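Model it.
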Amino acid sequence: MIPRRAAMRLMMCSAVLPLLGGCDGAFERRPAALLARPQGIAGRIDPGESNLGSPSGREVLLYAPASLAADGPSPLILSLHGAGNDARGGLFTQALADRFGALVLAPSSAGRVWDRAFGPDLTTIDMSLQETFRRARVDPSRIAVAGFSAGASYALGLGLANGSLFSSIMAFSPGSIPDGGREGWPRVFISHGVGDERLPIDQTSRRIAPVLRGEGYEVDYEEFDGGHTVPPEKLARAGDWLGW
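Modeled.
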């Protein structure tokens, strides 16, 4: 018997092709599959930023807050920047890292936007995660992926395709869901400004949230008065939702 959630996914497919980029085989194949996994090592890194580097030569920043636990595994947020930005733009989740004593891994996309075909950028992210897991002891039950704008779209694609790695997805003003496949049932938080002119809410999040709920995902969706941004109060609200 097909599980209820899987059946719901199949029924929704024909209605959501523009958002998902096509559903054919999405439940069998995962073009956005990540191989890196926490290694359970006893290591600890010093507070501050370090550049892990990437094949493209662009920065990949790993941020460790002063609140990082001296012993025991740490939470991790993979944090993805918006279009035209870089790794430093991915550190918009730093307040959550400080609050929860979490590591933040902020890679740079190889080009102006993230590779929706899950090619070079996926490789960089996988390598960066593997290096993070080599350096630090990460709690496998507290790994989230977050993103803003184009990074939010990519975070949705990665998170939904890697539910065995990411328990939570935080998408701030996403535009769509790249088709990376599906695995597991990560929780999803989405926020979007009603005055967003770059990615109008009626064409994006007001369609994305119902699609994901229809597929059976747990979605916390919030709108705010404002434009294409991540208000501090919405970042804090995402932290409340994360609940680490």
